[in-house]
Amino acid sequence: MVQPLDQFLGQPAAGAAQAAVADMRATARWSVATTGAVGGLLLGGFPLTAVGKIHGTADILPAVGGLVVAVAGVAWALWSTGEVLTPRFATLRSLADPALADLRAEIDAAPETFFGPFGRTAGQLEAACREHTDVAVRLAALLAREHDEERRAGLSRGLADARANAAHATARRRALLELVHAWQVRRALRRARIHTLLASVVVVTGAVLFLLATDGG
User: Fold this and answer.
1) What is the CA radius of gyration of the chain?
2) DSSP class of residue 54?
3) Which end of the chain has the lower number of beta carbons within 10 A, N or C?
4) 15 in helix, strand or coil?
C-alpha cells in the first residue's frame, strides 16, 4: 500500500525565494531609475550650461569626447543592471551551472532540507514526481473499474496517499526551481553592481574631460 511521505518532513517554505527575487529586482529598478536620472542630467541641462564656453576645434573635440565617454558609461550601467530584470528560465538541470556551485554546496550539505523523503539529488526528486503521479493515475484507473466495496475502500486510501505524495514531491520541485531562479537573479545583481561601479568611474572620467574642455575655453 502506498504510504503518505509528507508525514516525515514538513513542506518547503512557499514563496520565500519569489519574495527574494522581487526584492532584488526592485533594487535593480531603483538602480536603473537612478542611472537614468544621471544620464538625463548629462544629456540635458549639464552640457547646455557649458556650451557657451566651447570655442574652436581644440575645445569641441575633447568636450564631445568626454560627453560620449560619460554617456557610454551610463549606457553600460543601464545595460548591466537591466540584465537583472531579464526573465530567466530555470530547470533542475540549471543546478549543474558552474555559477551555482555555492547553491549546490548548500544542497549537498543538507539534502533532506531540499529533497525531503524523495532522494538526495535533483534527478531522484524528478523521478519521484513522475513515479507518484503515475501511481496515482494507475490507482484511479483501478478504482474506476472496481466494484467490490472493500477493495474500493483500500484503493481510495491508496489513491489519496499517492496524490498526497505526488503533491508533496511537486511542491519540493517547485520550491527548488524557485530557489535556482533566485540564485540566478542574485548572481546577475552582484555582477550588475560590479559593472555599475566600473561604469560610474567611466561616467566621472567623461564628465571631468568635458569640464576640463569647457573650462579651458
Assistant:
1) 29
2) -
3) N
4) coil
The residues of the chain scoring below 70 in pLDDT are 1-15, 39, 41-59, 215-217
Could you give the CA distance from residue 73 to residue 200 in angstroms, rounded to a whole number?
A: 6
- How many helical (H) and strand (E) elements, i.e. helices and strands, does the chain have? 7, 0
The cell for 195 is 559593472
DSSP state of 87: -
pLDDT tens sequence across 36-66: 777 676 666 556 555 666 666 666 777 778 8
Beta carbons within 10 angstroms of residue 164's beta carbon:
18
Neighbour-count burial of 194, counting CB atoms closer than 10 A to its CB (0-12 exposed, 13-18 middle, 19+ buried): exposed
Angle at 202 between CA 195 and CA 79, to 5 degrees: 40
* Residue carrying the nine cell digits 545595460: 79
Distance CA 57, CA 89 (A): 51
Residue from 105, 110, 114 nearest 13 by CA = 114
pTM of the shown model: 0.72
Q: For the chain, first and last CA: distance in Å?
A: 89
| Cβ atoms within 10 Å of 13's Cβ, excluding its own | 10
